[in-house]
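I am still getting used to backbone structure tokens and would like to learn alongside you. Label the sequence line and the structure token line clearly, so we can match residues to local backbone shapes. Would you write everything just below, so we can both look at the same thing?
***
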Amino acid sequence: KVSKFQKKELFETVSLLHRSFENTCSHKTPIVNGLFSTLIYRFVNIYSDASQSASELKNQSAVIYSNFKKLISDSTFLETPSFFAKKLNITTSHLN
């Protein structure tokens, strides 16, 4: 999900790009190229942040799963889901 701040940055960059494109100054081409590169890098940063968040979520899920398996193997009798959720510091619905 794109944050408000990221949307604002993208909009400002596109706005500058549009104004520079319509400008008739002698250095128009390098200015437009630089702003276009900036826009591309802003998109790359947004994608990179999203990929990192997804990776962190997968890692967290793997840790919870591993800890859950250990709890089950260490349990000597049948426990309720709320018992396991409490031990894992998560909600019962998250465990389900």
Remarks:
- The radius of gyration is 24 Å.
- The chain has one domain: 4-95.
